[in-house]
Amino acid sequence: MRQVHGYLHAIRGQLSHEPRSCRRLPVLSYTTTDQYMFSRLNIAYDNHWHNLGIVFGFVAFNIIAIFWFTISCPFALLVCLLLLGRS
């Protein structure tokens, strides 16, 4: 077990705690999900408020765009056509 401990310390990993994994020795190279997300996707937890603000911005823009293209724009087009038809 000392060799395994030395190996895990060298690669900065840990053993899986699954009881069904007796045949092979699963080694997890990341201790948290944050480490995996940052190393693979360059996503850090420190930016969560920034990312949430971007998501809310997209949601607000889509709500405004849906309102504009379904209610305001056709209504404005109808008013313009009626005003042009009178003259």
Tell me briefly what this model is.
This protein is mainly α.
User: What distance lies between the first and last C-alpha atoms, to the nearest angstrom?
Assistant: 93 Å
Helix fraction bin: 55-70%
Task: Specify the number of helices.
Answer: 3
Uncertain spans: none
Compute the number of strand runs: 2
Strand fraction: under 5%
Q: What spatial order of strands do you see in the largest sheet?
A: 1-2
Average per-residue pLDDT, rounded, comes to 76
Query: Based on CA inertia axes, which overall geometry fits?
Result: rod-shaped
Q: Work out the count of structural domains.
A: 2
Report the radius of gyration as a whole number of Å: 28 Å
Class from secondary-structure proportions:
mainly alpha
The helix/strand order is HEEHH
Largest sheet: 2 strands, antiparallel
Description of the structure:
It is a single chain. Helix content is 67%, strand content 5%. It has 87 residues and is mainly alpha-helical. The chain has 2 domains: 1-43, no CATH class; 45-87. It has a two-stranded antiparallel sheet. It is rod-shaped. The model has no long low-confidence stretch (mean pLDDT 76).
